[in-house]
Amino acid sequence: MTRWAIAALAGATAFASCGARAADNMRIYGFLKVNVESVAAGGARQQRVSNDLSVLGFRGTEDLGGGLQGFFQIEMPVAVDTGGGGDFTRNTAVGLRGSFGQVLLGIWESPYRYASVYAIDPFAAGIFASNAIMGNGFATAANAVVPASFDRRQKNLVQYSTPSYRGWNARVAASAREEKNGAANPGMEAALVTYEDEKLYLAYGVERHRDYFATKGKDIGHKLGLAYSLGGTRLRAAFERLRYAPAPGQHLSRNAWQLAATHNSGPHIWRASLTRALDTKGNATTGVGGAGKPGPGTGAAQYTAGYGYALSRRSELWAAYTRTRNEARAMYNLSANPVPGLAAGQDPSGFGVGITHKF
User: Fold this and answer.
1) Three-state DSSP class for 43?
2) Which of 5, 30, 152, 313 is the most exposed place for a label (fewest CB within 10 A)?
């Protein structure tokens, strides 16, 4: 952990303990999620202990009067398996909220990501998550870095969220265009509209990338999300269309969908997901991310199932299995902790047994 991160942790801890008012307005939160897993692809198998995007964070608020509130959040990854982490590269921002809604500035997940990841995907993190296909890979990055990804935690972001109105909410965000290089001036804009009540969740997200691959090139993603509860069962679905301009005069598009479900019965939690990437289309001469060069044999399907046992409201023991069946020219890997050296047409798979503790 870097020296400045240690100093920030010490300062935040001291702040949290320096009086009743500070304690009321300051919270330490996070989760630790680790599993012992076995992964394979192309006949090679590897056993490992993997961290599933564990988090340590601090958030707080200040009442400014007149219904106005200042807030902050600083959040870091914690590599439980190796002891790494320590940089505040997760959702970290400062902002204001009031009757007008909320404005934040910092590094934060794009509104587009929220259209399906947390409300739709029962696994959300680690090799069992769907975002190797949905969003075409996850990235924490500045503009034009990991340009294939539409599942982004974006640096240098300004985001506005509306107040809630009868279950409806909206967010819009844009990244500062700080990476200008000659004629290329990359930038990102995204928006999300959601509706949510006790049973139903609806979402539409859109995100546009400018100059991520080529000067004056525009890439765009559209995503729909839907979830509905029937007793202890939650049914979930998402559809996504991505379109890229990987080079001047070239384009590539790809559709994908996900069907998922969870069922809770006492301490028992059952999870299942099917995610499908269709063949890529267009005239591009290369593939983008896991999607191969346009044409047949570039689709894939990911099958994932899991079981959890809730030891308490904060602790869970769980097991899960996932397998991605790549067609001959596709290269979709496992999410978050990919299998090294995956070749086109190989089918990565993994089984894990782990524990999650939230605090």
Assistant:
1) coil
2) 313
Write out pLDDT tens, residues 200-222: 999 999 999 999 998 999 999 99
Give every CB contact of residue 88 below 8 A, 6+ residues apart in sequence: 5, 8, 74, 75, 76, 107
Quote the distance between the C-alpha of residue 306 and its chain's center.
19
DSSP characters for 107-161?
EEE-GGGGGTHHHH-SS-SSTTSSTTTTTSSEEEE-TTSSTT-SEEEEEEEEEEE
Report pLDDT for 91.
Answer: 97
Please tell me the predicted confidence (pLDDT) of residue 70: 97
Report pLDDT for 115.
85
Q: What's the DSSP call for residue 87? A: S
Q: What parts of the chain have a pLDDT lower than 50?
A: 1-24
Cα–Cα distance between 18 and 26 in angstroms, integer?
11
Chain segment 55-71, per-residue pLDDT in tens: 999 999 999 999 999 99
pLDDT of residue 35: 96
Which residue's structure tokens are 């007008």?
100
Residue with tokens 């019965």: 265
> Per-residue DSSP letters for 214-268?
STT-EEEEEEEEEEEEETTEEEEEEEEEEEE--STT--EEEEEEEEEEEEEETTE
* Distance set, CA 196 to CA 100, 115, 162, 169, 225 (Å): 20, 12, 14, 9, 11
Q: How many CA atoms lie within 13 A of 152 on its CB side?
A: 31
**Residues 6 or more apart in contact with residue 119 via CB below 8 angstroms:** 201, 203, 225, 227, 236
* pTM exceeds 0.85, yes or no: yes
3-state helix, strand, coil in the chain (%, to 5): 10, 55, 35
Q: What angle do CA 60, 109, 151 make, to 5 degrees?
A: 160
